[in-house]
Design a protein that fits this description.
The complex is a heterodimer. Chain A is an alpha+beta fold. Chain A has two helices and four strands. Chain A has one domain (about 5-65). The mean pLDDT of chain A is about 90. The model of chain B is unreliable at about 1-10 and about 430-433 (pLDDT under 50). Chain B is globular, with a radius of gyration of 21 Å. In chain B, helix 1 (about 15-45) runs antiparallel to helix 2 (about 50-80), helix 2 runs parallel beside helix 4 (about 115-140) and helix 13 (about 360-380) packs antiparallel against helix 14. By secondary structure, chain B is mainly α. The chains are: A alpha+beta, B mainly alpha. The interface between A and B is medium-sized, with 24 and 31 residues.
């Protein structure tokens, strides 16, 4: 059975204007330990962020919740 | 930190910008046409050459240009859908839509058969190429949200609209025998609802919460909306070809509910926004949604009116409101998109680029967009007194040219700072006026 990574930090950026959510995630990434995950909450899928994460060696998993919130779970590859 | 952000996927500024810089002049031409011949256009009804030309200057000229250019930028950012060779795709689509749109209108007004033949080939060729490129990108998209579904339905709607438009133009240009009376309302429904409204909604799911800090559209509503629009348009298509007026009225009433639900939901969300700043973009969105709701209420009414003159006036009013809704929202989005793109691309040459407000201050955008909204209101009132269409046309032409000049100013702002990043943004701002 697959175990969920332990949460590291949740950034609720649903009421932030761009590019603040991306800036906050990039600032938090250096502190993200292997085996833990950063969760970003937004009302959209941040494809520009996905490309930056991939280039820096991180992977993500996105879940759409019924209230319209996208939860982007980020961890080291 | 901003300098660390990666935007290699963004196409060159010129790719979407050339569409945005071209579009206002189609709208300006529509205004000039109405300024010269407005009362006659209103009285001539939707089958008159002036009305057909004015409608296509707004739709196949202004709306298609902006939407086609914006999609090249929007698809990678909003849906992770890469556009095949964006410079080439943008170049072919821009050339085809610009020359084809101009030929189409010239054919309706003056030139006749040769121009309509050229328009058939240009719009059909560019449209088919553009649809295939977009469909290819969207097919490979990894997105999970409702925007992707909306974009897919919208591109399908564009494909049907182009196919029907080519068929219609072939009737006039090549003498092909097709049922004109049925094809026209079906072409209009696919273009305005199947393509334009579905695309507008797909964009709204993303940009309304993002830029205005509203709650999101309920996902179930957003996922169902393109299906509902497609269902209404298919129902309309069947009712028109089967010549069942009662069914057509029922389908139009269903359209009222679907379109009204989108307009109403958007106005409700904007009423709950956390970004309390009111700018030109927000004003245009709200006016556009109000016009869309009003148009939706009007949809079924002309179908039930037997008096030809009254029906013509009601169709004019509904047409101005629905086209005005798109024009208003598109103008509002241009006031946001173009400064954002200039800011985005200046970051590659400047450590701290000027803010979006420096590129196009709201104090300059707002008077222009208010004049545009006023022109739409005056044109709507021409349903009651057709000579007002002349004044509405003048206002529309001035507002469109003003909007075009603002965009040229923003492009020059980028060009100067990109050429010499050490130049003062304030100096550049003055020159951009």
């Amino acid at each position: 059975m697959r175990t969920e990574p332990a949460p590291f930090r949740t950034i609720d950026a649903r009421d932030w204007l761009p590019p603040e959510p991306m800036e906050a995630v990039l600032a938090a990434l250096p502190e993200l330990d292997p085996g833990r995950e950063l969760v970003l909450l937004l009302y959209r899928e941040p494809f520009p962020l996905y490309r930056v994460l991939e280039a820096r060696g991180f992977v993500h998993r996105t879940v759409l919740h019924p209230d319209g919130t996208f939860a982007i779970h980020v961890r080291r590859a | 930190m901003i300098g660390a952000l990666s935007f290699e996927q963004a196409p060159p500024l010129w790719v979407p910008l050339r569409f945005f810089l071209t579009a206002p002049w189609f709208l300006c031409a529509a205004g000039l046409l109405l300024a010269v011949d407005g009362a006659h256009v209103v009285a001539g009804g939707r089958w008159g050459p002036g009305a057909v030309a004015a409608v296509h200057l707004v739709t196949a000229g202004y709306m298609l240009q902006v939407m086609a250019g914006a999609l090249l930028q929007f698809m990678p950012v909003a849906a992770g859908a890469n556009v095949w060779r964006p410079r080439l795709t943008g170049g072919v689509a821009h050339a085809g839509f610009t020359a084809g749109g101009a030929a189409l209108v010239a054919g309706f007004l003056w030139v006749g058969v040769p121009a309509l033949q050229a328009a058939t080939v240009l719009m059909g060729g560019a449209g088919a190429f553009y649809v295939v490129v977009l469909a290819r990108g969207l097919a490979a998209s990894p997105a999970i949200g409702p925007t992707l579904r909306g974009l897919r339905f919208a591109v399908f709607g564009l494909a049907v609209t182009v196919a029907l438009g080519v068929a219609l133009a072939s009737v006039f240009g090549f003498g092909v025998a097709l049922p004109l009376a049925e094809l026209v309302p079906v072409h209009a429904a696919w273009g305005l609802a199947g393509w334009a409204l579905t695309l507008l909604a797909a964009v709204a799911w993303l940009v309304v919460p993002m830029f205005q800090l509203t709650p999101p559209y309920p996902p179930r509503f957003a996922f169902a909306f393109p299906l509902a629009v497609c269902g209404v348009v298919l129902g309309w298509t069947a009712a028109v070809f089967l010549r069942t007026p009662a069914v057509a009225i029922a389908v139009a009433a269903a359209g009222t509910l679907v379109v009204g639900a989108f307009g109403g939901a958007t106005l409700r969300l904007q009423g709950q926004r956390k970004r309390r700043v009111t700018d030109a973009t927000l004003e245009c969105w709200r006016a556009g949604m109000a016009a869309l709701c009003a148009a939706a209420v009007l949809f079924p009414i002309p179908l039930a009116v037997t008096d030809a003159a009254l029906r013509g006036r009601l169709e004019w009013l509904a047409g101005v409101l629905v086209l005005g809704a798109f024009v208003a929202v598109i103008q509002g989005m241009l006031h946001k998109i173009v400064p954002f793109l200039v800011w985005l691309h200046l970051r590659s040459v400047m450590a701290v680029p000027p803010t979006m407000q420096k590129v196009l201050p709201d104090a300059r955008a707002r008077p222009q967009s208010r004049l545009l909204l006023a022109s739409i209101l005056v044109l709507a009132l021409a349903a009651a007194w057709p000579p007002l269409a002349h004044l509405g046309g003048v206002l529309l032409a001035v507002a469109a040219a003003w909007g075009g000049a603002l965009l040229v100013g923003a492009a020059r702002f980028h060009h100067r700072l990109a050429q010499s990043p050490s130049a003062s943004p304030d100096d550049t701002g003055r020159s951009a006026r």
